[in-house]
Write a structure and sequence with these properties.
Layout: E1 2-6, H1 11-22, E2 26-31, H2 39-48, E3 53-56, H3 62-69, E4 76-79, H4 86-91, H5 93-113, E5 118-124, H6 148-166, E6 171-177, E7 179-181, H7 200-208, E8 215-218, E9 230-231, E10 233-235, H8 236-251, E11 256-261, E12 267-268, H9 269-280, E13 286-289, E14 298-299, H10 304-310, H11 318-331
Parallel strand pairs: 1-2, 1-4, 2-3, 4-5, 5-6, 6-11, 7-10, 8-13, 9-14
Antiparallel strand pairs: 9-12
Bound molecules: nicotinamide-adenine-dinucleotide (NAD) and uridine-diphosphate-N-acetylglucosamine (UD1).
Nicotinamide-adenine-dinucleotide (NAD) binds near residues 30, 31, 59, 60 and 84.
């Protein structure tokens, strides 16, 4: 299939392109490079020995987007492009609503005009807010988001559902990611956060390489096995493979389908630290500090629906995630 990838040079999209190319799909990529580097394209090519048709375009730019895509036959779009820093979204809400929502609206308009009605969207477990039950199935009601980033995902999901409801020729798969970490085992692709990392694994790898003195563990008084927050960490390569499988749902004319992409296992912050230390033989100094506002105690998926319908399940272990995250970070020095 010819697959359009928005946000093509980003963390999750770059890994997904590798898996798609290895499954003989052809890629047209779009990115404005606001949070990624053009070098990613060379690194993808080093792994797959295949090129992608790449355009440096902001998806809010209707004219350039339409112009770039009008001569391509696109079978499906996988829409990753978006701003994703939770803290920044609180201080710059209008930028987040503009980029993520207007970007998606412009993309949908162009897709419709060029006759592509198949879309896979990168959503997040953040839409469950404080989940009504654990493990989280797709039936769990959506909750109150604690930040504008989360609301953009919440709202875009609704926009997609309404679009499909109005015009039944759309097929839309919404993938709710849990906590993607890890990196490509080659060490050529991974996550490069700007500034001080918000998320746990990039912070740990920056402590490991000496860039930061210690990790601050946000609270050890949660109702969890060791008091620290529990999450469903998923290897980015497993996540990427979930997108390849989601194409089958699109081909089967699924209407709208929502899938959780997680492992079904919850690990605490201390579990992650200790696994990282054991696998990589590096000590991670840490200090317990206050809870982070907006955090919840426990969040992990029940990925049974993806297993049953997409025939997908995560295969990499937490050990693999810790090893590959460090392998990538240590090559950046
Ligand atoms: P990323 O920042 O590495 O990738 C996003 C890419 O989109 C970047 O390359 C950026 O330059 C590009 N982009 C942003 N706005 C754009 C625009 N207007 N036009 C064109 N390109 C634009 O992020 P990621 O971690 O790879 O996340 C990919 C998607 O998955 C995002 O939508 C994110 O919200 C979602 N998601 C990520 C996580 C996570 O933990 N990483 C969890 C849940 C959902
Ligand atoms: C965060 C976002 C969520 C987003 C997800 C993936 C918040 C409140 N939520 O989820 O919207 O979809 O990232 O990008 O930011 N932790 C520490 N010290 C750190 C960093 C994190 O102890 O320096 C703890 C957290 O308290 C949490 C766990 O590690 O218990 C995971 O945190 P993080 O990686 O930021 O992911 P989430 O909070 O699950």
């Amino acid at each position: 299939m010819n697959i359009l990838i928005t946000g093509a040079t980003g963390f999750i999209a770059s890994h997904t392109i590798v898996e798609l190319q290895q499954n003989n799909h052809d890629i047209i990529g779009i990115d404005n490079l606001s949070n990624s580097s053009i070098d990613t394209l060379d690194n993808i090519e080093k792994i797959t020995k295949k090129k992608i048709d790449f355009y440096q375009i902001d998806i809010r730019d209707y004219d350039r987007l339409k112009d770039a895509l009008k001569n391509h036959k696109i079978d499906c779009c996988i829409h990753f492009a978006g701003l994703k820093a939770v803290g920044e979204s609180v201080s710059k809400p209008l930028e987040y609503y503009d980029n993520n929502i207007n970007g998606t609206l412009t993309l949908l308009k162009v897709l419709k005009e060029i006759g592509c009605h198949n879309l896979i969207f990168s959503s997040s477990a953040t839409v469950y807010g404080s989940p009504k039950f654990i493990p989280i199935t797709e039936d769990c009601p959506k909750g109150i988001c604690t930040n504008p980033y989360g609301w953009t995902k919440h709202m875009i999901e609704q926009i997609l559902i309404d679009t499909q409801n109005a015009t039944k020729d759309w097929n839309i798969v919404i993938l709710r990611y849990f906590n993607p970490i890890g990196a490509h085992p080659s060490g050529l692709l991974g996550e490069k956060p700007n500034g001080i990392p918000n998320n746990l694994m990039p912070y740990i790898t920056q402590v490991a390489c000496g860039k930061r003195e210690k990790l601050f563990v946000y609270g050890n008084d949660y109702n969890t096995h060791d008091g620290t927050g529990v999450r469903d960490y998923i290897h980015v390569v497993d996540l990427a493979r979930g997108h390849v499988k989601a194409l089958n749902a699109i081909n089967n004319k699924c209407g709208v389908e929502i899938f959780n992409l997680g492992t079904g296992h919850g690990y605490s912050v201390l579990d992650v630290i200790h696994t990282f230390e054991k696998v990589n033989q590096i000590k991670i100094p840490y200090e317990i500090t206050d809870r982070r506002p907006g955090d919840i105690a426990t969040c992990y998926a029940k990925p049974a629906k993806a297993e049953k319908i997409l025939k997908w399940c995560a295969e990499f272990t937490l050990e693999d995630m810790c090893r590959d995250s460090w392998n990538y970070q240590s090559k950046q020095r």
